[in-house]
């Protein structure tokens, strides 16, 4: 494979964040998805039992507001698991927050997502339901790069399809903060929201912004490829982006 093609493929993956995320409830079962049409908690639990999984009430709910609701990324996160992987992914609406771009590059070159308080905003996200082993693996994939922390998001209004309301929910968020431009966070255009206050961009647009903030000239494809292949260079660029970081503005976040 030529260097140009490799650069283009790397860039394509990075700009595709947060990837395809179904807007319906589904089961992620060993790399495939089962669309949960006209289901109920009872029917869902019956299907989970048939798959050898615990019922929903025995699984741990975790916010999935970025790529963690994407089957494509779930495949990559859990393909090394020796046992069967069964994850219910259920749509939800979270009030008072928006999903914004982080202040760092991911290991695959994307600018990933984090939470930011936004009074009056409602966002369409999802909740993953994980057993202990899958929660451990998910946490490993999130914190290994030193960018995210797992904690309890408290005093929120989260409405989960089929399930009901949560006031507290586990979530990952970036301790590096969110990327800001002109002091404002930048929302993910692909995450549907009502009452959005922040400017919104897609994956390609945010990479263009990040490259400009890093003062790197030239085509973006080789820049992203270098971000992916060179850990020291990636961290150097993350340190530059740190100058544009805005902290998470929610006081009820418990590590």
Give the secondary structure arrangement, pairings included.
Layout: H1 3-15, E1 26-29, E2 32-35, H2 41-50, E3 60-64, H3 71-78, E4 86-101, E5 113-130, H4 132-143, E6 148-153, E7 157-160, E8 164-166, E9 169-174, E10 178-181, E11 184-188, E12 193-194, E13 199-201, H5 203-213, H6 220-229, H7 231-241, E14 245-246, E15 253-254
Helix pairs in contact: 1-6, 6-7
Structure in words:
The protein is of the alpha+beta class. It has a single domain, classed as Gamma-glutamyl cyclotransferase-like (Hypothetical upf0131 protein ytfp), CATH 3.10.490. It contains 7 helices and 15 strands. The strands form 3 sheets. Strands 1, 2, 3, 4, 5, 7, 8 and 12 form an 8-stranded antiparallel β-sheet that branches. It has a 4-stranded mixed β-sheet with strand order 13-11-10-14. Helix 1 (3-15) crosses helix 6 and helix 6 packs across helix 7. The longest helix has 13 residues, at 3-15. The protein is globular and about 55 Å long. The relative contact order is 0.19. The model has no long low-confidence stretch (mean pLDDT 94).
Helices, by number, come to 7
**Global geometry:** globular
How many domains is the backbone divided into? Answer: 1
CATH class term: Alpha Beta
Rg over alpha carbons: 18 Å
CATH architecture: Roll
Q: Extract low-pLDDT stretches.
A: none
Taking the sheet with the most strands, its summary is: 8 strands, antiparallel
Chain oligomer state: single chain
**N-to-C series of helices and strands:** HEEHEHEEHEEEEEEEEHHHEE
User: Mean of residue pLDDT?
Assistant: 94
Q: What is the percent of helical residues?
A: 25-40%
Report the structural category.
alpha+beta
CATH homologous group name: Gamma-glutamyl cyclotransferase-like
SS strand fraction: 25-35%
Q: What is the tally of beta strands? A: 15
CATH topology: Hypothetical upf0131 protein ytfp
Ends distance? 44 Å
């Amino acid at each position: 494979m030529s260097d140009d093609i490799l650069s283009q493929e790397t860039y394509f993956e990075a700009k595709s964040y947060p990837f395809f995320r179904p807007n319906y409830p589904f089961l992620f079962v060993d790399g495939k998805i089962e669309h949960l049409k006209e289901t109920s908690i009872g029917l869902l639990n019956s299907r989970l039992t048939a798959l050898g999984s615990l019922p929903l009430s025995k699984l741990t709910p975790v916010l999935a507001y970025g790529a963690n609701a994407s089957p494509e990324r779930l495949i990559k996160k859990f393909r090394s698991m020796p046992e069967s992987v069964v994850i219910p992914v259920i749509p939800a609406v979270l009030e008072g927050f928006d999903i914004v771009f982080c202040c760092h590059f991911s290991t695959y070159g994307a600018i990933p997502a984090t939470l930011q308080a936004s009074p009056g905003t409602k966002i369409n996200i999802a909740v993953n339901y994980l057993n202990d082993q899958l929660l451990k693996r998910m946490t490993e994939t999130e914190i290994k790069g030193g960018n995210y922390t797992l904690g309890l998001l408290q005093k929120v209004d989260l409405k989960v399809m089929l399930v009901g309301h949560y006031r507290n929910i586990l979530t990952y968020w970036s301790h590096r903060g969110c990327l800001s431009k002109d002091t404002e966070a930048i929302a993910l255009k692909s995450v549907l929201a009502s009452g959005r206050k922040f400017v919104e961009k897609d994956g390609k647009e945010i990479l263009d912004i990040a490259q400009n903030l890093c003062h790197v000239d030239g085509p973006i494809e080789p820049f992203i490829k270098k971000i992916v292949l060179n850990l020291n260079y990636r961290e150097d660029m993350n340190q530059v982006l740190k100058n544009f970081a805005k902290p998470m503005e929610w006081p009820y976040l418990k590590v």
